[in-house]
Write a structure and sequence with these properties.
Blueprint (H helix, E strand, L loop, with lengths): L5 H9 L3 H12 L7 E7 L6 E6 L2 E7 L7 H15 L6 H11 L2 H14 L14 H13 L7 E4 L9 E4 L4 E4 L10 H16 L3 E3 L2 E3 L3 H7 L5 H15 L1
Helix pairs in contact: 2-3, 3-4, 6-7, 7-9
């Protein structure tokens, strides 16, 4: 029986092709199933998306080209996650954490933002809506809470109304987009201002990446959010408006 030391195992993994990695992980996930023909392609996605499908005895994996140079352990972790999802299983937590930790590396975050900005298109409307002007709201809030020192990002209304995502800040395109649902005479101004203020705080308190975890709303963010004038009333007004719109 051949026994390999740790360094030998790592060396063996290093020289595996990505297709061989998927073949090995497939056999671990489905040990009694016939090994399909495996094809792995790198695609120029605008993010770190990956897709997997199994049809007619052929396993097709499409991975963002951002991961083409990822080390073998990361490829193996992604293979484990994708194959688990393909067969309706819960992905291994350690593999998920290892993969997310890699994506959260500073160099990978920079690459993801750059690629999203260059390849992805951000569609949104003008800041002047039928009822509210986002440029005016931003300027007003900037003076009131940030001493007028916050540089304005691009601003716009969403192309379609949404009652679940009322606003978001996209750091890749440096834009704040509010849901067109809020551009309504029925939407209290305090509620619309609160949503804009919330998104402005994302510029002041960016997402923190801690290993495999992403902290979008840090303790500092939450504390600053409560400084909004009539915070509780504004949140309640927003809640009641959304409830009426559903």
């Amino acid at each position: 029986m051949l026994h390999l030391g740790k360094m030998q195992v790592e060396a063996a993994l290093f020289f595996e092709t990505v297709e061989q990695i998927y073949a090995r992980v497939f056999q671990l996930v489905r040990p009694h199933a016939p090994l399909p023909e495996i094809s792995v392609r790198y695609k120029k996605y605008a993010n770190a998306n990956s897709r997997i499908s199994l049809q007619d005895g052929r396993l097709l994996v499409e991975i963002s080209d951002l991961l083409e140079t990822a080390p073998a352990p990361i490829q193996e972790a992604l293979a484990s996650v994708l194959l688990a999802k393909l067969f309706g299983r819960t992905p291994d937590k350690n593999c998920m954490a290892q993969y997310r930790h890699y994506l959260n590396r500073a160099d990978m975050r920079r690459s993801l933002h750059s690629v999203k900005r260059e390849r992805g298109r951000k569609a949104y409307g003008e800041p002047q809506g039928e009822v509210y002007n986002l440029a005016y709201l931003f300027s007003s809030l900037n003076e009131q809470y940030f001493h007028g020192l916050m540089a304005a990002p691009a601003l716009g209304w969403s192309l379609r109304p949404s009652r679940t995502i009322l606003g978001h800040y996209d750091p890749s395109h440096h834009v704040i987009v509010l849901s067109r649902t809020l551009d309504s005479p029925n939407a209290p101004e305090s509620a619309v201002r609160f949503v804009m203020f919330h998104e402005m705080l994302h510029l002041r308190y960016p997402t923190e990446n801690r290993g495999s975890r992403r902290c979008v709303h840090t303790p500092e963010f939450k504390l600053a959010e409560k400084q909004f004038a009539n915070y509780a009333e504004a949140k309640e007004a927003l809640k009641q408006f959304v409830r009426r719109e559903i």
